[in-house]
Design goal:
Elements (H helix, E strand, L loop, with lengths): L1 H40 L1 H17 L1 H5 L4
């Protein structure tokens, strides 16, 4: 009974740490993809479409960086 509580406690901490690291990486890749979109398509295109496209791309950044899609 006591071991189940310890495992659940540490699992919660591990999942929270993974979520924080992934959230920070999404923020960093969001900046990168916004800059890349603005550089590639121009400022006006970025102003209207870039924030949406770059933010969605940043959410799934591992798929783009590891060439899964």
């Amino acid at each position: 009974m006591h071991n189940d509580f310890i495992v659940a406690f540490y699992m919660d901490k591990i999942l929270m740490a993974i979520a924080i690291v992934y959230g920070i990486s999404v923020a960093i890749f969001g900046l990168y993809y916004n800059w890349l979109y603005a550089k590639t398509h121009g400022f006006l295109a970025w102003l209207f479409f870039g924030e949406i496209i770059a933010s969605l791309k940043a959410l799934i950044w591992p798929l783009f960086e590891f060439n899964i899609i």
